[in-house]
Structure formats: C-alpha cells, structure tokens
Amino acid sequence: SVYALADLVVKRFFQPWFHNDWLYFLTPNGRSFKKHCKVVHDVAEDVINKRKEALASGVGPNHEEVGKKRRCLDFLDILLTAKDENGEGLKAHEIRDEVDTFLFEGHDTTASAISWTMYALAEHPGIQAECQ
Predict the structure, then answer these.
(1) Confidence (pTM)
(2) pLDDT tens across 87-96, in order?
(3) Cα dihedral 78, 79, 81, 85 sign
(4) pLDDT (0 to 100) of residue 68
(5) Res 102: pLDDT
(6) Which of 46, 35, 50, 33 is nearest to 96 (CA)?
(7) Distance between CA 57 and CA 62 in Å, rounded?
(8) How far apart are CA 118 and CA 127, in angstroms?
(9) pLDDT value, residue 75
(10) What digits encode the pLDDT tens for the residues 4-23?
(11) According to the model, what pLDDT value does residue 54 have?
C-alpha cells in the first residue's frame, strides 16, 4: 500500500485538475488512495494498540520487559507515555501520524542510500574491487 500511495501521489501531482480533493476522491484513483490510506493507518493503529497493551501489562509480545522498568524506552513508548504541562498525552491521531512516519518513510531512505552506494562504487572501481 505504501508504494501504491506513492505512485498515486505522483500521478495526482502531474494532473493539476485533480489537485481539488472533492474532484479527486470521485475518481477511481481517489478511491484507491483512500483505500490504501486506510490500510496504512490500520497497520499503524495495530502497532500502537499492541504496544499500549504491552505497556499496560508490562510484558511485550516476546516476554521482554516493557515500559518504565526498562532502562531505555523506545520511541513509541515515549509517545504513549508523554504528557504536557497540563498532564495531557498526545491524541490518538498525533501518535498515529508519528508512527506512520517511522514505519513507512524508511523505505525511501534505504532505497536512496543503496542507490547512491552503488553509484559511488561504480564511479570508483578501486574501492569496488576492495568491497568484492
């Protein structure tokens, strides 16, 4: 779904008549976009809910300690336990947005890093030979 969303965003970008949300979501691509967004959000919400359950019980899915008993909290634990000066935590959609970023943005970064590594190795045959 992540790759499908990326493809749909690029297609929409080059079709300015679909920059209007109302019109775009009437099209097959717009409906597909909504469907894929739901899949992505459902995955993120599933991760969040499982982590909330693990924090509540103190034991993760692999029977490891979870939460404040551990020396280091992972990023999702920090988001789930964070409170502002009024004692209010992040809203569910704010946490989901952050989880979406961390779950799905790594694809582009990894692909770019691998591409540039291959390019750099191709430009420097001596280093490429050392790597082999």
Answers:
(1) 0.65
(2) 899 999 999 9
(3) positive
(4) 54
(5) 80
(6) 46
(7) 13
(8) 11
(9) 85
(10) 988 999 999 999 999 999 99
(11) 85
Token pair belonging to 99: 């989880």
State the alpha helices, DSSP H only, in the chain. 2-13, 21-24, 28-57, 75-81, 92-104, 106-123, 125-131
Q: Tokens 């991760």 map to which residue?
A: 47
Chain CA centroid to CA 111, Å: 15
The CA distance from 39 to 26, in Å, is 19
Contact 98, 105 (CB under 8 A): no
Residue with tokens 């001596």: 126
Do 32 and 8 touch, CB atoms closer than 8 A? Answer: yes
Is residue 106 within 8 Å of residue 117, measured between CB atoms? no
Angle between helices 92-104 and 106-123 (to 10 degrees): 20
Residue keyed to tokens 């082999």: 132
Q: Between the CA of residue 119 and those of 84, 114, 124, 126, what are the distances in Å? A: 46, 9, 9, 13
Q: Which residue stretches of the chain have pLDDT < 50?
A: none
Handedness of CA 12, 18, 22, 28 (dihedral sign): negative
